[in-house]
Amino acid sequence: MFDLGNMMGKIKEAQKKMEEAKAELANIQVKGEAGAGMVTAIVNCQKQVISIEINESLINPDDREMIQDLTVAAINKAMEQAEEEARAHMKSKTEGMIPNIPGLDLDSLMK
Looking at the whole model, is its pTM more than 0.70? Predict the structure, then answer.
């Protein structure tokens, strides 16, 4: 027999764990590099840029456009890695918490 009270309790517990896991994402940092490591971006899994490192060899006023392009590329790579890391983290924190219910899309809760 279906126990609605038990199911609601599990859903509330899952919501609490998901909120805790989302908060932990601020502490998970990933790195993206561009130009063979000449530009490095560190972001957290809440998609916040933590730091940008630019190799001294790039600091030339004539290379401004290249530096900008490499910075964007490094940040984008770090953001992609952050998304993957965030999904893996959320999955590990919520695995087995809620039964597989057809039509219930838990991935949308992780974004």
Answer: no
**DSSP bridge partners of 30:** 43
Q: What is d(CA 78, CA 102) in angstroms, rounded to the nearest whole number?
A: 33
- What is residue 31's predicted lDDT score, i.e. its pLDDT? 92
The candidate with the shortest Cα–Cα distance to 25, out of 49, 53, 44, is: 44
What whole-number distance in Å separates Cα of residue 83 and Cα of residue 66?
Answer: 26
User: In the chain, where do the E strands start and end?
Assistant: 29-34, 39-44, 49-54
SS3 16: helix
50 touches 29 (CB < 8 A): yes
The neighbour count for residue 99, using CB atoms within 10 Å, is: 8
Rounded Cα gap, residues 100 and 111, in angstroms:
19
Q: How far apart are CA 67 and CA 60, in angstroms?
A: 9
